[in-house]
Amino acid sequence: MFSSRDDLILATLSNSQKLHSESFEYKSLFLNLITPDETNARFLPCVFIENEHARLFVERRLSKNQLVEIYEADGKVIIGKDCIINCLKYGTSDWRKANQSIESIIELGENISVSEIIQVPTVYPLEDNQYQILTGHRRFFALIYTYGLDHAAQFKVYDSKPLLYKVKQFQENASREDLPQYGKLQAFLSAMLEIEGIDQARLKIGEKKLTVREKAKNLGVSMGAFDNYNVLTRYPEVIQAYEDGLSASFVKVKKIILECEQEYKALHDKKMLGAGDKREIGEQIAARLLGKKPTSAKVKSYNVKKITQVDVLKKLLFVDVSTLDTNIDWGVLDWDDHEQVNKALEGLLEKLS
């Protein structure tokens, strides 16, 4: 019996099985048997209500507060037939993000009511005849909004939880142009954790890690797209900006990231970047994404304190001070170290005074 995902991957590789060969079939399932995946980037904290309660709310015979009390829905989104209510704290970023999701769910629900879903949601079985959403959260929410909990709909049903279920979620998110960038980046990070699990499993059985091309193939994206995702997820500030509502294209943001990195390397004469360097670059990227002009790097200078004695000034101008007995070893002085040079200048002026 295997106890972890990595063990399952190892077993799959050892038996020369394909990682994406799970069996599935299409089934009609009642919506009240389906559970959303809270770890999915498309997850919306929600509670589903009975059709009768939804009808009473639409007819204004049941209030929002009453529904919140009945379903303990404070801090969640209530979803039922023909009603969807944002119960998150008003004005917060979570409330605003939920509103955006609600708008897209309502629009999708309107489309579903007049035409079939082209790509049905996918699920896998849990215990007690329940199922969990793998892909298609918005479509699932839209089905409940359109038809109510008691309705049955078509689903793609896997025999069991897919071994690389985060990879499968990413494959769908990456191919959907209508999904927010934040969700795609989160899905990529989750999928890459599973890809790293494959690498570790391959090492255990004496094989090499996946090549970049193989990783891109496993994720179902081109080499160019894979590079884009790698660059975009390099800095948490970028992911946070998208979570906060940034709508700039991946291409534009990637260009900003690469420019900030190149400018930093040139300014500090570095070829490799450490953790501290990346923190500074992340701050610069965040400022650029907010539309702030990059602050000019403070140029270090050599400082000479005010000279009040004319004879000291004359010695500086007309005497080779390096030949004087000042206890300063000019030969070992690091002239690129501004702090060291400034201390030497300060000591020189004291000797000349």
UniProtKB/TrEMBL annotation:
<dbReference type="InterPro" id="IPR036086">
    <property type="entry name" value="ParB/Sulfiredoxin_sf"/>
</dbReference>
<protein>
    <recommendedName>
        <fullName>ParB/Sulfiredoxin domain-containing protein</fullName>
    </recommendedName>
</protein>
